[in-house]
Amino acid sequence: MSNRQTNTDVILIGAGIMSATLGSLLKELMPDWNITVLERRATAGEESSNEWNNAGTGHSSLCELNYTVEKPDGSIDISKAIKVNEEYQVSRQFWSYLVNSNLIRNPQDFIVPVPHMSFVQGEQDVSFLRKRFKALEHNPLFDGMEYSEDPAKLKEWIPLMMKDRNVNQPIAATRIESGTDVNFGALTRILFDHLKSENVDIKFNHNVDDIKRASDGTWELKVRDVASGKVERQTAKFVFIGGGGGSLHLLQKSGIPEGKGIGGFPVSGLFMVCQNPEVVAQHRAKVYGQAPVGAPPMSVPHLDTRVIDKKESLFFGPFAGFSPKFLKFGSMFDLSSSVKGHNLVTMMAAGVKNVSLTTYLIKQVMLSKEKRMEALREFVPNANSEDWELLVAGQRVQIIKDTAAGKGTLQFGTEVISAADGSIAALLGASPGASTAVSVMLEVIKKCFPTHINEWEPKIKEMIPSYGVSLLKNPELIRQHQLSTARALGLSEKVSLQASH
Question: Alpha carbon of 34 to those of 61, 409, 438, 443, 469: distances in Å?
Fold first, then answer.
């Protein structure tokens, strides 16, 4: 290791949407703090945040059926749907603040209105969707949601999906126009451009090889320049590990007790993509269905309108795959090297409990293109194989930990792991991560900077007006924020008017 040492206030590991969000929040709260970003790739947002590595859904539970669960008594539990929706509203408020402060100039570069829909077939799933709609329709967070079982109405909503469809069983859909398509890759790059203009030191092609606590309580990182091989030390009072799937290894290297006993299970995703303008023009919505029996929640099939670099395309998937890599540009030894003495039993228990998941993933990996086309034709009956090509999306690492549900429980979602003294935090997990990035990073700030929260609260409320308030208990506030954020983010007037009703 060289003798060169750089001291800073904050180090953010990974140049994805999470570090971009946390850096932007901290720069507003403490403009004088020195912040350094370390990213192993050559540019920002190359992994999970990249627009081609995710579905771009502004996750707000408007269409995702796995966020609403039918309970044994037949009622629908909408608690998770409400939580995710409220968290997305927080993201919209922060993005609107950045636009209104001229820190983001063209919101259309990363967010556009696209209706969100749920679509089901068969009496059982239609019954579920009908009950789900009734549970949500009077909730102000889901204002404007429509429901129909009428094939003629569905033909208006989703002409591509209804064309040549044999309606020999009950079908139903819900639709809400206030949904969005978000280019998280573009947003990540926009935020880092802003941070660079605020003198944040962003070091690309720099890999963190090791991390340990120094005798004075700060954190010392061994950082390697990927191009030259040169190694230097970086020290900081606070470190955030936001390296996507790579966060687990760095959390383990930190040695904090809170990171013990946690494992990770990688799941890769693949999409079928259509860029034929004639086909793309026939569909404008994000349409989510029910996950196949035995499939993990992240494998809910959906047909999405995507807007990338102002060009529309269609994504269908995801098809699950398996790779031992924790990152798309990772190592084949990522999974095996993450197994330590402290998480071995947890990982073994997860293996035993998830045999069916492993079997499902193996079957998914073995699918031919034509088999994937058969799944697509459940959504688009007349889909032509020549119009669709396979795209390998990003890697997701699901958390494995011991919970009240037992040892080796596979977790779906995101989780912040932080040291007791708040000097280091790591973000683990997957969807709906990017959509709820602002809420998740506010959680990091509250956990890691408790002595600053009172002095920061006025500024936080300026950035996020609903901070500390339950939107659900203040319906008028929901309408007010939906209207103001729709205007700031350049979403359609139709959506703005809907929010004001």
Answer: 37, 39, 21, 21, 31
Has residue 500 got a pLDDT over 50?
Answer: no
Per residue in 8-41, pLDDT tens? 999 999 999 999 999 999 999 999 999 999 999 9
Give SS3 for 246: helix
391-407 tens-digit pLDDT: 988 888 888 998 888 88
Instruction: Check the CA dihedral 197-199-200-201 and report its sign.
Output: positive
- At residue 37, what are phi and psi to the nearest 5 degrees? -115, 130
Pick from 240, 176, 261: nearest CA to 16: 240
210 CB-contact burial (10 Å; exposed 0-12 / middle 13-18 / buried 19+): middle
Can you tell me the distance from the alpha carbon of 326 to that of 396, in angstroms, rounded to the nearest whole number? 7
Given this model, what pLDDT does residue 272 score? Answer: 95
How many CA atoms within 13 Å lie on the side-chain side of 119?
Answer: 24
CA gap 308, 323 in Å, rounded: 27
Report how far residue 129's alpha carbon sits from residue 135's, in angstroms, rounded to the nearest whole number: 10
In whole angstroms, what is the distance from residue 233 CA to residue 221 CA? 6
pLDDT recorded at residue 352: 84
What are the backbone angles phi and psi of residue 306, rounded to the nearest 5°?
Answer: -120, 140
CA distances from 387 to 113, 377, 486 (A): 25, 13, 34
What mean pLDDT do residues 291-320 have?
85
Render pLDDT for 450-486 as a digit per residue (tens, 0 to 9): 999 999 999 999 999 999 988 888 888 898 999 999 9
CB hemisphere CA count around 246 (13 angstroms): 24
The angle formed by the CA atoms of residues 215, 216 and 222, to the nearest 5 degrees, is 65
Q: Is the pLDDT of residue 203 over 60?
A: yes
Angle, helix 453-463 to helix 437-448, in steps of 10 degrees? 170
Q: Is the pLDDT of residue 494 over 60?
A: no
53 phi/psi in degrees, rounded to 5: -105, 5
Cβ–Cβ under 8 Å, residues 248 and 338? yes
CA dist., res. 127 & res. 131, Å (int): 6
Is beta strand 5-13 parallel, antiparallel or unpaired with respect to 231-241? parallel
3-class SS shares of the chain: helix, strand, coil, % to 5: 40, 25, 35
DSSP 419: -
Global pTM value: 0.93
Q: Of 437, 74, 478, which Cα lies nearest the Cα of 244?
A: 437
Highest mean pLDDT among 192-201, 258-267, 341-350: 192-201
Rounded Cα–Cα distance for residues 66 and 433 (Å) = 15
Whole-number percent of the chain with pLDDT over 90: 74
Q: CA-to-CA distance for 210 and 220, rounded, in angstroms?
A: 8
Alpha-carbon span 116 to 118, nearest angstrom: 7
Determine phi and psi for 27, rounding to 5 degrees.
-65, -30
CA distance 267 to 322: 5
